[in-house]
Write a structure and sequence with these properties.
Distance between the termini: 37 Å
Radius of gyration: 21 Å
Structural class: alpha+beta
Shape: globular
Largest sheet: 5 strands, antiparallel
Helix content: 40-55%
Number of helices: 9
Strand order of the largest sheet: 4-3-2-1-5
């Protein structure tokens, strides 16, 4: 695999904050891991850790690269170095174009590439799906290729999952500002609308088409977000960047949406045992 592009030089760490009652870090220092860097996963190890806000960060050294390219990476962008993680890495390499190896670029070409990446980052919002949810998507694909599907109707449905997430957000904040409530309501309404429009067009495997058509015939007038669940909501989030780009979402709206979608993903990850199916049924 190609190595990460030359990026930001490392920043010096600082003393850890008072960690009483804080969730312990997931990764050990000096153990192999995979780090998410510019839409790819690269092998490396964590040499330091620190707490920043509500998240752990690790100083990652990428294998084969000098120390000046070490960088602090949030915990949710790191993956354990396992066979499943490497399947995710291979999937990313297959889905994201990479430069040809062995060809040295001129300074002008490197500058052009950097400018192109900056433009892309400005116009295409990215949601980093946590490792456990990436693994779920991979296992789900295997289930469906083996002729199994999600049993319908799903409980909780997509609408209920989003409702419970917003309720959880409100309970975890003593005084949620009115503007935050309005942003969450807009996010909820937008996701439900996107889901109902996108399900039949891009969120189904061909093996699920028969089940979908049968459900549509017997449930005319029922919103799809009231029948499908977290499994398909997760697929929507994976495809959401392209949908939002097509919708020409403003930079301000994108900045508001991104942290809340990431919170939603972490909420799904924490509650995966109740929100995601472990067993699928024959199609």
């Amino acid at each position: 695999a190609s190595m990460p592009p030359k990026g930001t030089k490392r920043k010096e760490g600082c003393a850890e904050e008072d960690l009483q009652g804080v969730e312990p870090p997931k990764f050990e220092l000096d153990k192999p891991l995979l780090g998410f860097h510019r839409k790819q996963l690269y092998a490396g190890k964590a040499t330091k850790k620190r707490r920043r806000g509500d998240a752990w960060q690790y100083l990652v050294h990428y294998s084969g690269w000098g120390n000046k390219y070490d960088e602090w990476v949030n915990e949710d962008l790191l993956y354990p170095d396992t066979d499943e993680s490497r399947r995710v890495a291979a999937s990313l390499r297959n889905s994201v174009p990479t430069d040809k190896q062995g060809k040295k670029k001129s300074n002008k070409e490197e500058q052009a590439d950097a400018m192109a990446e900056d433009v892309e980052d400005d116009h295409l919002i990215q949601f980093i799906i946590p490792h456990t949810l990436q693994t779920h998507l991979l296992k789900e694909a295997d289930f469906i290729k083996d002729g199994k599907v999600v049993a319908l109707p799903r409980k909780p449905c997509v609408r209920q999952v989003l409702h419970d997430f917003i309720k959880f957000k409100a309970q975890s904040s003593d005084e949620m500002l009115q503007v935050e409530k309005e942003i969450l309501k807009d996010m909820n309404d937008s996701l439900l609308s996107y889901f109902d429009k996108a399900l039949g067009m891009m969120l189904l495997y061909k093996e699920e088409r028969g089940q979908y058509n049968k459900w549509r015939e017997g449930n005319a007038g029922v919103a799809q977000c009231d029948f499908y669940g977290t499994e398909h909501l997760l697929r929507l989030v994976a495809k959401l960047p392209a949908l939002l780009q097509d919708a020409k979402m403003s930079p301000q709206s994108a900045m508001q949406l991104h942290p809340r979608i990431m919170e939603l993903l972490r909420y799904i990850e924490r509650n995966a045992s109740t929100l995601l199916l472990q067993h699928y049924v024959p199609a």
